[in-house]
Design goal:
Blueprint (H helix, E strand, L loop, with lengths): L15 H9 L9 H10 L5 E8 L3 E8 L2 E8 L14 H20 L7 E5 L2 E5 L2 E2 L2 E2 L11 H17 L2 E2 L8 E4 L2 E4 L6 E2 L7 H23 L8 H9 L10
Helix pairs in contact: 5-6
Amino acid sequence: MISKSQGMPNTPYLDASVQWRIKAGTLDLHESGYRSTTESILACGLATEVVGLISAGKEADVYLARYRGAPLAVKVYRLYRTSHRGGGPIKADALGWRTAHEFEMTRQAWKGGARVPAPARRVENMFSMRYLGGDDGPAPRLHDLRLEDPEAFLSEVLAGVRALVHAGVVPGDLSAFNILVHEGEPWFIDLSEAVRVDRTGTSPWMRLSEAETLLRRGMDALQGYFRRYGIRMDPDSFVPDALGSFDRFGVLR
């Protein structure tokens, strides 16, 4: 049961009778289980078969599925569980927005030639994309690997980050946890907090300052990973150089 102290997702959007039932403790809210989630994936046409769960995160789960025999991954955001950043339950409408946002960021990056899993379709809090892996399982995270040639791989990672930025997408959570190593190359995942640096919906100063903050934070996280190999990076020169083509007004100088 949801208690009064826990709050309720979407409370402002509920009519008075539903709000009363929540406050009285007579309305039971629970997250969809494995069976109901897989049934939803199949019912909305994202896949014709669900093989199983690939990974379980704090805000979303990823399933291995097939569409007419072709493997794909389906990411499903949870509706009511608390974010890993703390606070109350995440609103269902916010999760729908985040799903749409990540789908569009991934699509923009893919269209721009960045190495991200090609997105396929989105329905509410779920979307399908290319499966990165093989018969022996999904591609491993960079964080879980020991590289044989870390300097060469770092060059590939930096080239991949530049490709993302060139496509207009700056990841909001860049780290070794969100880079998969597939067929010897880095692939970037989890763009739920990414921002578009090529749009002028806000002032150039605000847009570029936010992008700079996110990219610098991501480069610091990558530097923490590559430090285990004794490799030092230079975020101070990489970040403004990567964003330079969008800095027409000298915001970062």
